[in-house]
Design a protein that fits this description.
three-stranded antiparallel β-sheet, 4 helices, 79 residues, alpha+beta
Length: 79
């Protein structure tokens, strides 16, 4: 993989995105096919913009839900 100095300003290939995300290249192509990952198609080639990939990773987080305080079991505190 090429050294990416400014990731957010870089055009990337599927191989580079796969290496960056630590996934297989075929997984990246499957994600392109389902529209799960941001990409562009120019002259028949699939290209990725580094900034879009970084934003996509940041937006696709699975944060654990904070329990609602009213749903917490407070019985043990009251006994």
């Amino acid at each position: 993989m090429k050294t990416i100095i400014h990731m957010n300003q870089t055009l990337m290939t599927a191989t580079e995105v796969a290496e960056y995300l630590r996934m297989g290249r075929s997984t990246i192509y499957k994600m392109v096919g389902t529209g799960e990952i941001p990409y562009h198609r120019k002259r028949g080639r699939i290209i990725f913009i580094g900034e879009e990939i970084v934003q996509w990773v940041k937006s696709d987080t699975n944060q654990p839900e904070t329990p609602n305080p009213t749903e917490l079991n407070t019985k043990s505190f009251l006994d």
